[in-house]
Amino acid sequence: MKLETQAVTKRYGAHAALDGASFATGDEARVIALLGPSGGGKSTLLRVLGCLLVPDEGSISIDSKVLPHDDDGALQARRENGFVFQGYNLFPHLTALQNITLPLREVHGMNATEAEQRALELLHRLGLENHEHKRPSQLSGGQQQRAAIARALAPKPRLLLLDEPTSALDPVVTGEVLDVIRELAEAGQSIILATHEISFARKVADWVVFLAAGKVQESSPAADFFTRPKTQLAQAYLEGLSKYR
Asked: What architecture does CATH give domain 1-14+24-80+158-245?
């Protein structure tokens, strides 16, 4: 996967969450980690890349295909992606199984039997085989996040986008969720991950985009970024996160 942005800007009122963000990855970037300080623009960039948001200015291309700016085109592109957020975003009144089958039926046009088979396959794959009929309130944080990952994977997305997927989890559960993500990466799933989990990003990412103040400060192969960051800002960021890890 080759990902490229040119002068992407996204404003919320007077605040520019992305301020002319530009970068390009190598042709074979399969797992891309978005790193940087809080408020630097990682989540906004992730949403723009996934077509959840349309940029105010600039352009984005994935494998030389320019992402649309119109609402209908963005909606169609969005359906090719899977999203996992730090707040899980599961429907509280539905079971884990129903949370997966509903979008398969209503958005992706699967019949009820196909949707249930696909949902059960993923729930079992992610260690939730005894929890299909529980509602989110009956699941632990890690189980809820795995259910959210199963829902994102159910339509077989071209691209899986993960926004701080472990930020609300304790260390043990964080490890469980990161294991799932690592296994997906090793199986060939294309992933863009916004995270503060530096040790994990070091293990699974093959490309890093480092953002601060809405701008891309560095874009490089992961091995280069972690061993030879080019900017003082990136050096200080890595040293700060690594100090007690």
From this structure: 3-Layer(aba) Sandwich (3.40)
Q: What is the pLDDT of residues 53-112, one digit of tens each?
A: 999 999 999 999 999 988 899 999 999 999 998 888 999 999 999 999 999 999 999 999
Distance CA 190, CA 184 (A): 9
The domains of the chain are located at 1-14+24-80+158-245, 91-157
pLDDT the model gives residue 176: 87
Does the global pTM surpass 0.90?
A: yes
Structure tokens at 70: 């119109």
Answer left, alpha or beta for residue 235, where phi above 0 means left and psi between -120 and 50 means alpha.
Answer: alpha
